[in-house]
Amino acid sequence: MSPRRASRICCPAFLLLAAVACGGPAEQPPEGSAGTPTNPPPPAAEPIVRTGDPYARGFTDDDFPRVQQIADGVYTYEQLRSSGDEKFTTVSLFVVSDEGVLVADGQGSVEETQRLLDTIAGITTAPITDIVIGSDHGDHTGGNAALPESARVWAHPTSATALAAGVERAAARGNTTATPLPTDLVTGTEVLERGGREIRLMFLGRAHTGGDLMVFLPAERVLFMSEAYLNRIFPAMRSAYPSEWVAMIEAAQAMDIEWYVPGHGFVETPEILAEELETYRQALVQVIDEAKRLHAAGVAVDQAVEQAQFGELDTWTLRGSQGPTAIRRIYMELNGELNQ
Fold it and tell me: Is the pTM value of this prediction over 0.85?
């Protein structure tokens, strides 16, 4: 069975599998007759390939954007993006109520963010009232000019500063496109009530960007982690706080969560997402430990980039581009060069 087409709203994979597994009983042959049931049971579903590579998963470009409803009024949105010769997904989340729509993370261009907005408009006529900046990086904010200026924009102060600086740099280059900047800052937990639903915006600690903001739906037990969780994508650390990142994930794992939603990689079943979050935590630890080993041996950072060995992580998406960056960033942490 091929993946659902981009124009459709997908049921989560685990619901599709359950529908197969829970079908009616096979017709039995008449009593005393020989032979097998007329309707044999369906073949077992093929196991999911655990990778960030959409093509290894059996997808084509036409299967995106991929939209799944994971709870009442709660949707994930996966769209492909390119990095060199590799493609992987950027994930947004949106929460729909009669009062309005909250969007957590846009996409990397105005065109792609508009496609996200068009998808939302096909589901509800409610206006977009809230935008949450989970990650301030361009692949999640580059299309923010498509977002309505009337919406409230929530961000951690670190992300707000980074976004304002980005707008200033663009203006200096002659790009004066109106981009909504943060209107509300979150340093701990902010509780919103939207359409009778509680939504918590949470900062659990510095991770991928230093301003990593989570969206937590306590009733639905959904936690959108943005780029603090990269499902089978090599740990990307150009602005990360490596050791704090591990602690932040452990704080998320201690919460009562069913759906851990990543900012890149595929949105799987709740069970697989929880397993892959632990796999990702272990990947962070592995990369950090390798840098520590080389640092302790007195290997200079340029040589450490060449000598680093990551084992199975060498097969992960973006290893080629992000491996050297991670080693350099961890060396900075070990040398006390990251801002406190």
Answer: yes
